[in-house]
């Protein structure tokens, strides 16, 4: 008969006492790394692009025949110095300052109204121009073209390809001299720019909220209103404020063709060689651009918070 078993010395093996099994070590991968081709190589596309760009720049200098020696000569510097000296002192008479203040307000109103009209028109045109809303859901679950996207894109391209000065010169025939032609010229050109930017923003919006509403049977317009527009609204406002800054500068130049504002004063007094009054108009333009740039910067900072 066997003796009693010593329980104290025969304790079961604990899991912690076992040595953990290590996975077999893999051999080190000694395959050579593939380095990118050098920039100056006949196989590199960047090399050919840089050579083509350099050739284009050289051809531009040769075609334009720029007289750099005459431009940087001492006689040219003296003539420019005499011309700049004629701007001092600027005209500060009360009658001219009153006229200058009215022209400044008119330029500001032209840019603000033209930008607002362009923002509304661009928002309406961005819906059929975007890939997101330019297609409808087919019965098979696939997207079917509605036929409005490409014509709308062509319209936006045509609007922004014509500069503001050309639009103003064309509209002077129907609208006549004054701020009406300038405002419409800013609105038409800016509509093409903002419409394209708005359409790109709508296409790049996160599709999750819109897809969730579509699965519930919500229509496309309501999906855009409640899902897509709240996501892209800060970006749309930022684009609009930036174009307002550009339209301030453009409105100051549109008056050269008789579209009102500071540009019309500038063209009138500079044509009569009244350099004191011209200096006052230039100072008002600079003040207006700096003011609008500051307000636009503060507005964009508040929108991005």
Write the layout of secondary structure elements.
Blueprint: H1 45-64, H2 68-71, H3 74-85, H4 94-129, E1 135-137, E2 143-145, H5 149-161, H6 164-175, H7 179-203, H8 208-214, H9 220-254, H10 262-271, H11 275-303
Antiparallel strand pairs: 1-2
Brief overview:
The protein has 305 residues and is mainly α. It is 67% helix and 2% strand. The longest helix has 36 residues, at 94-129.
Question: What does it look like?
Answer:
With 305 residues, this protein is an all-alpha fold. It has a domain at 92-303: MetI-like (MetI-like fold). The protein is built from 11 helices and 2 strands, in the order ααααββααααααα. It has helices at 45-64, 68-71, 74-85, 94-129, 149-161, 164-175, 179-203, 208-214, 220-254, 262-271, 275-303, and strands spanning 135-137, 143-145. It has a two-stranded antiparallel ribbon. α4 runs antiparallel to α9 (220-254) and α7 runs antiparallel to α9 (220-254). The longest helix is centred in the middle third of the chain and has 36 residues, at 94-129. The protein is globular. Residues 134-144 have low confidence and may be disordered.
């Amino acid at each position: 008969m066997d003796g009693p078993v010593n329980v104290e010395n025969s304790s079961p093996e604990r899991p912690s006492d076992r040595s953990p099994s290590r996975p077999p070590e893999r051999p080190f991968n000694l395959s050579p790394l593939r380095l990118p081709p050098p920039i100056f190589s006949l196989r590199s596309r960047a090399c050919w692009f840089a050579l083509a760009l350099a050739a284009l720049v050289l051809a531009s200098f040769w075609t334009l025949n720029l007289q750099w020696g005459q431009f940087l000569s001492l006689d040219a510097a003296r003539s420019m110095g005499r011309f700049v000296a004629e701007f001092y002192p600027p005209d500060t008479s009360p009658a001219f300052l009153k006229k200058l203040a009215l022209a400044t307000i008119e330029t500001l109103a032209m840019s603000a109204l033209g930008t607002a009209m362009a923002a509304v028109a661009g928002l309406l045109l961005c819906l059929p121009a975007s890939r997101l809303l330019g297609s409808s859901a087919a019965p098979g679950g696939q997207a079917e073209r509605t036929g409005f996207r490409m014509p709308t894109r062509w319209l936006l391209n045509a609007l922004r390809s014509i500069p503001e000065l050309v639009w103003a010169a064309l509209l002077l025939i129907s609208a006549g001299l004054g701020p009406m032609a300038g405002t419409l010229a800013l609105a038409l050109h800016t509509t093409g720019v903002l419409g394209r930017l708005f359409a790109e923003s709508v296409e790049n919006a996160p599709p999750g909220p819109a897809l969730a509403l579509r699965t519930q049977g919500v229509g496309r317009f309501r999906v855009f209103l409640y899902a897509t527009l709240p996501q892209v609204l800060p970006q749309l406002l930022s684009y609009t404020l930036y174009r307002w800054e550009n339209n301030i500068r453009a409105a100051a130049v549109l008056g050269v063709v008789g579209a009102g504002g500071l540009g019309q004063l500038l063209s009138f007094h500079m044509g009569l060689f009244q350099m004191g009054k011209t200096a006052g108009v230039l100072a008002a333009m600079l003040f207006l651009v700096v003011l609008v740039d500051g307000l636009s910067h503060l507005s964009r900072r508040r929108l991005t918070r």
